[in-house]
Write a structure and sequence with these properties.
alpha/beta; Rossmann fold; 9-stranded mixed beta sheet; about 30% helix; 7-stranded mixed beta sheet
Length: about 525
C-alpha cells in the first residue's frame, strides 16, 4: 500500500460522493480520480523516471490538491514549498533540493528562483486553461491513466519538506512512503473517521491541511477547501456545510473564537477540532471547550516525525487533569524520555522527548551529519524537553533547541538574524522567542546598529517581512548598545529572553511592533 491508495479506497467506498468541495464547485471521487490520473500521466510524460522532484507552491485550491495527488500517483517526490515564504528562503530551499519540475501559481513565480527547469502554472492569471497549466494538462490527457511504478515504502520518497538548520541553512526532510501509510493508519485508529465526516481545510494545503485530507479520502469522506483561514467563513462552514473535522493551530482557534458568530453550542456537528504545531495553555482549553463543546483534541509531531506521534481524543481532553498534555503515543509510535547519556527515564522524569516508529523521516537529504545527530540508535531526538506521567501522557516542558513556534510555524532565529544582517544599518542581532497568549511565542529581536547608522523598528520589520514573510518578521525590535555574551563570546539568547519576556503580554508597544 502507498498513500495514494487512500484515494482509490475512497473511490471504491463512495464513487459518486463529494471528495473535494469549494466555493460553487465540487468534485466527486470519480471525477477527482480522473483529474489526478490525467495529470499524473502528464507528469510521467515529462518525467519518465520515477522519483523525480516536483516542487509545488501555491495558495489553497483544487489544482493544488490535484497536483500533490498526481505527484504521488506518478511515483514522483513532492517538494512542499510554502506560498508564504520570501524570496531568500525559497532560493535556499530549492537550491538545497534542485527540483526537476516546478508547479506554482502564476502570481508566485516572482518569489521563486530561476532554477532553469520546466514550469507549470497551478492557476493562470487570466483564468483560462493552456498547455502549461494544470487545467490544460488535465484536459489534454483526459482518460489517460499513468503507470503505477513499483516503489519501496521504506526507501522511496513521497515528499521532501523543510525545517531550518542551526546554521540558518534549511534541512530537507526526506519522508518515505512509509510515513504517509503510518500517518493514515494512525489517524483512522485514533479518531475513527466515517464516510459522513467532512474536513474543512483552511490551513495551507502545502503543509498541514493535505496531511489531514488523506485519512478522510480513505473512508470516502468530504474535504472542503477554503482559500485561507477567514474566521467568518470557517464559522459559516461549521454551521451550514456539515463540517465535522478541522485542524487549526492555537492562534487560528483564538481568532475564530473572537468572532461574533462564535456562539457557544452553535456547532453540534463539529466532532474533531484538533490543534497542533504550538502549545495551548491549560487555562485556554476550557474557553475553547465552552465555544466548541465535545470537539477539542490535540496532536504532537514535527516535520521529522509527522503530525501524530502522540494524540489526545475528545474524551481524554474533557478531563481537566489532562489539560496541557499532548496525549499518549499513537498506535504505531513509541515515545520516551531520554537523559543526555542516552538512557531512557522512568515515568515522571524530565528529559528529552525521543520517538521511533513509522512516522520518523529517513533522514535529512544530503546532510548525513545532521541525520546522524538527529537519529541515534534508532531514536529520533526531537529537541523538545518533557516528561511522561504514570498514565503515559506526554507533557512538554521546554524546547532544547532555539526554534520558535509562532502561530504554528517554526521560526529559526538564525534565519531571521541572517535577514536582519543584510540591512546596511545592522551590525549584529539576536533573535529569540517570548511567551505570548495569542501566538504561543512571538518573535523578538535585539539589534545592535552600526556606529552612526539609524533605523526604526518598522523599517527592520518590513525588511525581514519582504525576505522571509510575515510569520518570521519580529513582532518587537529592541535596540541595544551591545548584545550580552558568554565568556567565550557567544550571544546569550536565553538572557535576552529573560530580560524582555513579559508572559503573554498583548500590548506590544514600546520599542516596536509589527
Amino acid at each position: 500500500m502507498l498513500p495514494i491508495d487512500a484515494l482509490y479506497r475512497g473511490l471504491t467506498i463512495n464513487p459518486y460522493g463529494i471528495a473535494l468541495e469549494g466555493d460553487g464547485e465540487s468534485l466527486t471521487y470519480r471525477a477527482l480520480v480522473g483529474q489526478v490520473e490525467a495529470l499524473a500521466a502528464a507528469f510521467q510524460q515529462r518525467l519518465p523516471q520515477p522519483q523525480a522532484r516536483i516542487a509545488i507552491c501555491g495558495a489553497n485550491s483544487f489544482a493544488h490538491v490535484v497536483a500533490i495527488l498526481a505527484c504521488h500517483l506518478s511515483g514522483n517526490v513532492w517538494v512542499a514549498v510554502s506560498a508564504r515564504a520570501g524570496n531568500l528562503e525559497n532560493e535556499a530551499l530549492l537550491g538545497a533540493v534542485v527540483p526537476d519540475l516546478v508547479v506554482a501559481d502564476e502570481d508566485l513565480f516572482d518569489r521563486l528562483p530561476d532554477t532553469g527547469v520546466p514550469t507549470i502554472r497551478l492557476t493562470a492569471a487570466n483564468g483560462g486553461p493552456s498547455s502549461d497549466t494544470v487545467a490544460g494538462l488535465i484536459a489534454a490527457n483526459a482518460g489517460r491513466r499513468p503507470n503505477r511504478p513499483l516503489l519501496d515504502p521504506e526507501t522511496d520518497l513521497q515528499a521532501i519538506k523543510f525545517t531550518g538548520g542551526s546554521t540558518g541553512r534549511p534541512k530537507a526532510v526526506a519522508q518515505p512512503y512509509r510515513v504517509g501509510v503510518t500517518l493514515i493508519g494512525s489517524f483512522l485508529a485514533t479518531f475513527q473517521f466515517r464516510t459522513d465526516d467532512c474536513q474543512l481545510a483552511a490551513a495551507p494545503v502545502s503543509h498541514a491541511s493535505f496531511v489531514f485530507m488523506l485519512p478522510l479520502f480513505a473512508v470516502g469522506g468530504r474535504n472542503i477547501v477554503l482559500p485561507g483561514p477567514d474566521p467568518d467563513r470557517i464559522l459559516d462552514a461549521f454551521a451550514r456545510r456539515g463540517v465535522t473535522t478541522m485542524f487549526m493551530p492555537p492562534t487560528m482557534i483564538y481568532r475564530v473564537m473572537a468572532h461574533p458568530k462564535a456562539v457557544p453550542g452553535r456547532f453540534p456537528g463539529l466532532r474533531h477540532l484538533y490543534y497542533s504545531a504550538a502549545p495551548m495553555p491549560a487555562e485556554k482549553i476550557p474557553e475553547v471547550q465552552h465555544v466548541f463543546p465535545n470537539a477539542l483534541e490535540t496532536l504532537y509531531g514535527q516535520t521529522e516525525a509527522s503530525s501524530i506521534c502522540t494524540a489526545m481524543t475528545v474524551t481524554e481532553m474533557n478531563r481537566p487533569d489532562n489539560h496541557g498534555s499532548v496525549g499518549r503515543a499513537s498506535p504505531m509510535m513509541r515515545v520516551e524520555i531520554m537523559n543526555p547519556d542516552g538512557n531512557l527515564l522512568p515515568p515522571g522524569s524530565e528529559g528529552e522527548v525521543v520517538v521511533r516508529g513509522g512516522l520518523v523521516m529517513r533522514g535529512y537529504l544530503g546532510n548525513p551529519e545532521a541525520t546522524a545527530d538527529a537519529i541515534r540508535d534508532g531514536w529520533l531526538h526531537t529537541g523538545d524537553g518533557g516528561l511522561i506521567d504514570e498514565r503515559g501522557y506526554l507533557w512538554l516542558k521546554d524546547r532544547l533547541r532555539d526554534v520558535i513556534i509562532s502561530g504554528g510555524f517554526n521560526v529559526y532565529p538564525t534565519d531571521v538574524e541572517g535577514a536582519l544582517g543584510l540591512h546596511p544599518a545592522v551590525y549584529e542581532s539576536a533573535v529569540f522567542g517570548c511567551r505570548d497568549d495569542f501566538w504561543g511565542e512571538r518573535v523578538e529581536a535585539a539589534v545592535q546598529l552600526r556606529p552612526g547608522n539609524t533605523a526604526t523598528p518598522g523599517e527592520l520589520q518590513a525588511f525581514v517581512r519582504e525576505r522571509l514573510g510575515a510569520v518570521k518578521s519580529p513582532k518587537i525590535v529592541h535596540f541595544v548598545d551591545e548584545l550580552p555574551r558568554s565568556s567565550v563570546g557567544k550571544v546569550l539568547r536565553r538572557e535576552l529572553r529573560s530580560q524582555y519576556d513579559t508572559a503573554g503580554r498583548r500590548n506590544l508597544g514600546g520599542t516596536g511592533r509589527q
